[in-house]
């Protein structure tokens, strides 16, 4: 027998044994393998109304988030992440489409129309669904996809999910998540059962976990509230702190279930928050700060850091190196990041980057975003209720006041801020107390030009 023939026979025997061993392993441990090993599972964890500072891993001195802290230790942590809008509905829409609000048309939470707002919202939702989304991209590539928690654009099926909780029917109170908002607060069973199903079917899966946490109503378990309710701390602050830890506990249940099913090693976990928040009492002593429906100004709904900044995490065991990065990151990056990780094709017009690409992060010098009126939208004219444009470059941040066509349409608390532009040095002034626009006109003009070129 020739030497080459002997080698071929040996190789064939090794390959046969390899396949037999793999088949045996799948039989014994079905949860350890997906249908296609090159398709990682994706879990997206979305916090709801949480300031960028309010985690253990971000250095908060009081709030305890041990599960997210543990996730951070095994993740690429981009603590200078930003969202496209400081309000949940447009913020989530930008994550899903990879577009800014003026690109996908969702600029606020509602179409102005009083009792008719549900009917007026229908054409807006239909318009939104014409845009590609990473959800539909994943399901088109063989993924099962589950929705739970916050979801504004109709039912889970309308959003392209194969499974989910939200019905989206206005006649049954379907708005911003409806039945899906029970997740976390009333247990994790719908999500864990979906993961079990996907593992059983050996399908790659996507989980949209967007619980109504730590969002109001702030009604944490008594055991957690007692932990944070101490003398000298405002009640609304104590309740919010307890809600942050409650949210963290639910994240721990989800992450533990991935481990229990043996799929954690082949699962990418992404973390982001939709927008910031701060308790009303935290600025009640400032005469320049008005209060708005239970939360402080310069937080949710505003273009300040407590409205738009969030840590962003990417965990992929063996593929993404755990580290802390000061690179600028953005919610619009989720679509290109997920597409790159799964081998899917993202639309060519997406302005975001793959967050796992260090070169792309290093080349980015600026990020941008907008803030619109909270409770009304003009269908087909996203600029109509626009209030601010902003740019972050290195340690500088510029807010530009934008006058829409009809300022009487503004229903946002931040109209009081009449300054045409505000400039902050974030390294020295991370909480934006000192406006430097008058002292640094050159920086203001340069960043204004950058905003004009972007917009």
Describe what you observe in this structure.
Residues 1-36 form the signal peptide. The protein has 455 residues and is an alpha/beta fold. It has one domain: Alkaline Phosphatase, subunit A, CATH 3.40.720.10. Helices cover 32% and strands 18% of the residues. It contains 13 helices and 14 strands. The strands form three sheets. It has an eight-stranded mixed beta sheet, sandwiched between helices. It has a four-stranded antiparallel beta sheet with strand order 11-12-13-14, with helices on one face. The protein has a two-stranded antiparallel sheet with strand order 7-8. The longest helix has 26 residues, at 3-28.
* Adjacency order of strands in the biggest sheet: 4-3-5-1-6-9-2-10
Strand content: 15-25%
CATH level 1 name:
Alpha Beta
CATH topology: Alkaline Phosphatase, subunit A
- Mean pLDDT comes to 88
The secondary-structure class comes to alpha/beta
State the order of secondary-structure elements, H for helix, E for strand.
HEHEHHHHEEHEHHEEEHEEHHEEEEH
> CATH homologous superfamily, by name?
Alkaline Phosphatase, subunit A
Weakly predicted, low-confidence segments: 1-36, 287-291, 406-416
């Amino acid at each position: 027998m020739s030497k080459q023939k002997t080698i071929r026979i040996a190789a064939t025997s090794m390959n046969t044994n390899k396949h037999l061993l793999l088949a045996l392993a799948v039989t014994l441990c079905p949860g350890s393998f997906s249908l296609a090993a090159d398709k990682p599972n994706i879990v997206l964890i979305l916090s709801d109304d949480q300031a960028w500072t309010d985690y253990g891993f971000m250095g908060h001195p009081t709030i305890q988030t041990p599960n997210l802290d543990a996730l951070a230790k095994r993740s690429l942590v981009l603590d200078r992440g930003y969202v496209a809008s400081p309000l949940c509905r447009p913020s989530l829409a930008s994550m899903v489409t990879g577009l800014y609000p003026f690109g996908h048309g969702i600029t606020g939470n509602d179409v102005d129309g009083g009792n008719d707002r549900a009917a007026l919202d229908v054409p807006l939702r239909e318009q939104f669904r014409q845009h590609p989304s990473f959800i539909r991209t994943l399901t088109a590539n063989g993924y099962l996809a589950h929705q739970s928690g916050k979801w504004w654009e109709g039912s889970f099926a309308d959003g392209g999910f194969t499974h989910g909780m939200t019905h989206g029917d206005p006649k049954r109170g379907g708005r911003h998540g409806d039945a899906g908002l029970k997740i976390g607060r009333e247990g994790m069973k719908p999500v864990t059962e979906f993961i079990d199903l996907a593992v059983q079917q050996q399908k790659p899966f996507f989980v949209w976990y967007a619980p109504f946490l730590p969002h109001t109503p702030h009604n944490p378990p008594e055991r957690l509230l007692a932990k944070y309710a101490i003398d000298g701390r405002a009640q609304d602050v104590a309740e919010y702190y307890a809600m942050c830890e409650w949210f963290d506990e639910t994240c721990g249940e989800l992450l533990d279930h991935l481990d229990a099913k043996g799929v954690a090693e082949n699962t990418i976990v992404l973390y982001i928050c939709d927008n910031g928040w701060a308790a009303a009492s935290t600025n009640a002593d400032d005469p320049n700060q008005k209060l708005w429906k239970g939360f402080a100004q310069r937080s949710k709904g505003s273009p300040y850091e407590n409205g738009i900044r969030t840590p962003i995490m990417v965990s992929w065991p063996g593929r993404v190196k755990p580290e802390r990065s000061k690179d600028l990151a953005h919610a619009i990056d989720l679509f290109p990041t997920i597409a790159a990780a799964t081998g899917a094709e993202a639309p060519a017009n997406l302005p975001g980057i793959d967050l796992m690409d260090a070169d792309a992060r290093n080349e980015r010098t600026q990020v941008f975003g907008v803030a619109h009126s909270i409770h009304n939208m003009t269908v087909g004219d996203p600029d109509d209720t626009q209030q601010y444009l902003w740019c972050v470059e290195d340690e500088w941040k510029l807010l530009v006041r934008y006058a829409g066509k009809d300022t009487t349409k503004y229903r946002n608390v931040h109209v009081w801020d009449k300054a045409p532009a505000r400039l902050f040095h974030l390294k020295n002034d991370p909480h934006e107390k000192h406006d430097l626009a008058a002292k640094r006109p050159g920086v203001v003009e340069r960043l204004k030009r950058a905003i004009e070129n972007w917009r």
